[in-house]
Amino acid sequence: MGALMGGHDWATTSLGPPRHWPQSLVTLMRVMLNSRQPMFIAWGSDRTLVYNDSYAPMLGARHPAALGRPFFETWPEVRDEVGALMDRVFAGEPVHMDDLQLTLHRNGYPEEAHFSFSYTPVPGDDGRTVGLFCACTETTRQVLTEREAASERQRQQALLQQMPGFVAVLGGRKHVFEYVNDAYIAVAGQRDYIGRPVQDVFPELRDQGFFELLDRVYATGEAFAARTVPIRFVEDDDRYLDFLYQPIRDEAGTVTGIFVGGYEVTEEVRSRAALAESESRYRTLFETIDVGFCIIAMKFDETNRAVDYRITEANPAFERQTGANVTGRWVSEFAPNLEPQWLETYGRVALTGQPAHLESWAEVFGRWFDVRALRVGDPAAHRVAVFFTDISERKRMEEALRVLNARLEQQVSERTAERDLLATIVERTDVMVMAADLDYTILAINKANADEFERIYGVRPRVGDNMLDLLADQPEHQAQVRAGWGRGLAGEEVTIIEDYGDPDRVRPYYEISFRTLRNERGERIGCYQFVTDVTERLRDQAELAQAQEALRQSQKLEAVGQLTGGVAHDFNNLLTIIRSSVDFLRRPDLPEERKGRYLDAVSETVERAAKLTGQLLAFARRQALKPEVFDVGQRVRGIADMLDTVTGARVRVLTEVPDEPCFIRADLSQFETALVNMAVNARDAMDGEGTLTLRLVRGAALPAIRGHAGSDQAFAAVSLTDTGLGIPPERLGQIFEPFFTTKEVGKGTGLGLSQVFGFAKQSGGDVDVRSTVGEGATFTLYLPEVTPEERPANASRPDDGMAPLGAGQCVLVVEDNVGVGQFATQILEDLGYSTTWAANAEEALDRLGRTGNGFDLVFSDVVMPGMGGMALAKELQRRLPGLPVVLASGYSHVLAQEGTHGFELLHKPYSAEQLGRILHQVLGLRSGHRTRVTEQRTS
């Protein structure tokens, strides 16, 4: 435009030659020509038009002739719309328009155009407006595009309105309703939707998960679909929806909203639930559960047609239901005429892996079976697991009911026949049924119940008999029957398990369900019972519990076996110190300083030996699972001291335990066993050399492990980290399985980590393993933290001085070991007591006689041939209740299992100070009755 304007003959215009232009016009010219924004200037009374390059395209074919011409000569068609606006500007008023619609003929034909512009008055030297400056933008394309989009939205909404399912469109992060169709309103109700966020429209859905799903779809851009999802509107029952949340994106791919669509399926869900409930009641009433199981190996010909199968495994119910013991045999051998459908069904399962369920008649067995089959193991092995139930009785009942229903439909009047048929069904079932009125008189009884009643009590009941009268000469049985039936006749609907019969014989157990019997008016007139013999089921449960206890003990014994060699090594080291110190103490020229040092070494070594013995005995005790609250950090430190005996000298054991206490509730023995098992596993992984780190973290969260959800509850995390070879990823899923091991035969049973897993689960926690091949592994036990329980006030105190001396009191020492007996009497005499030694309990009783013969106290070992120390103490308590007894023992299974029974207990090995203190305490507190129970332990 600069060149065009420079070559224009301005003298022919009202502006005149450029050298005469006012400075304000020149300045505006420069601004306009250097701008990319479309601009023009209308100057003077005729409003001469001057414009820049960006404005030229708006003129169309009128450019460049429009340059220097009066504005309305160029744009005559806009005079009516623009003339008044320009008049306002030349009057000194600026004008701004966001959208002005004009009809232009710039290209020789009328066309709709839209503009956004501002008119700014330009004052002259005298302050009057001499010109108009305009910055404008043509918005025609934008307006037409928006108009087309609005039309498209209207078409889409009309289409959505016609859809059979409910539809809504939500916009923005707050999910504001932009559209809902009539089907949506029919489902959710008449509400104020448009322009409101979904949380404001549906406050009742706040805790039902829908808002979170919408947020996730908007944030991730991933669609979400679900079926039969429950939803509860205000004051409404649960309803069910199939729905889709589909993100809506703009041209750049950014999520701007969510499309909601779906169907209400409430009636379908309720119909299915009603059908399922009906079927459940039906099967519960007419079926008894006796599931058979077998695994079969299929045989196919060259065309993949199933031609035979072999029974590889079968449970006892298989033989009971089929009448055949066929494990290991081919079906063609024992059932050559078996219907082809069985081979076809099992063959299809073996080849496709699709489970099958069918009910069918097996002619060869003469029975009906309900069968479920699924492929197991390697698909190439063609093995199929078959679960089946003999439903012959049910089929007979179904057939009887079918006949009954058909008869009822045809002959409503045959009610007597209906009652007879139903009575026949009840009479033939194995379940024992009886009904009685409030006076224990029998109203109805089936054959199974009558037979069992006669077998137990020796009398056969009949309708009209009174149960209490029948058992009048059996008061014990009568009382038991009165107690059980009394609950049912009182209106209590209950199921109990109880044993009945002769107490001198094996008494069978029965599961008995009592239900109230009412008349037509709903009044309670008695009750009825269903009875099933559950003796075998309870025996199976007891055997299972016994097997589980045996498994736990085998795991314990394996861990104890790992300790044995290490403990022997440690004891030999301790004995070496004692032996060497004693040899030096025998030297007559040994200085007093060195003598004291050797005596201290012997004393410290004895204490270390006692501590090691105590740890081993506590670890190896056998008892039932007994959860208790203890400081897990203290036990980790204690077990770490013992792990040196397990791991060997080449494994360095480190502990990282916080100073603050951390309490858990678990079985202490199982906890220690778990740590030892993990330590043994770590030692083997390091090939006996490396670093083992025990670490305790308080207040840890339980992570998600093996697909199980985690927990934010506070857990104590006890981890063992080794520097071994690590565990391959494919093995991580197997290491906690019972009997899984990678060790050589004879070097492990595979029960260790299985014990760890079982202990963690039983204690309400879990166990995790993290490993990188070549960098070792970390096993972490997660156990729930608990509040510490109150501790006993009389906790043990360490020795803090010389033992108090006696005052000539007479002590009877009972000890079968000659060396220990002599040593004990010597210590007591050195402490100022008068002593007598008895080699066994029988001799001690002879010396005490009936009066005590002047003895002030009895100091006895626990484990002795014949009568033990505990039995002696109880006998003395009976004979001489005022005579104190102090027991001493290194370990006794009797004490471990039954406790001290109130007698004072001194643990071996003991020092002279400890012996003197406990005797002084017992004799000082003597007041004609036993002292309170305490235990003196070596530190």
From TrEMBL:
Tell whether Phosphoprotein is among the UniProt keywords.
Answer: yes
Start and end of every PAC domain? 227-277
Which Gene Ontology terms cover its molecular function? Answer: phosphorelay sensor kinase activity
Q: Where is the Response regulatory domain positioned along the sequence?
A: 810-923
Q: Locate the coiled-coil region(s) and give their ranges.
A: none
Q: What is its EC number?
A: 2.7.13.3
Q: Which residues form the Histidine kinase domain?
A: 566-787
Identify residues that carry 4-aspartylphosphate. Answer: D861
Which SMART domains does the record cross-reference, listed alphabetically? HATPase_c (SM00387), HisKA (SM00388), PAS (SM00091), REC (SM00448)
Alphabetically list the UniProt keywords.
Answer: Phosphoprotein
Work out whether the entry's keyword set contains Transmembrane helix.
Answer: no
Q: Which domain of life is it from?
A: Bacteria
Reactions accelerated catalytically: ATP + protein L-histidine = ADP + protein N-phospho-L-histidine
Task: Identify the enzyme class.
Answer: transferase
Spell out the Gene3D superfamilies in the cross-references: 1.10.287.130, 3.40.50.2300, Histidine kinase-like ATPase, C-terminal domain, PAS domain
PANTHER family named among the record's database cross-references: HISTIDINE KINASE (PTHR43065:SF49), SENSOR HISTIDINE KINASE (PTHR43065)
What is this protein's name?
A: histidine kinase
Annotated source species: Methylobacterium symbioticum
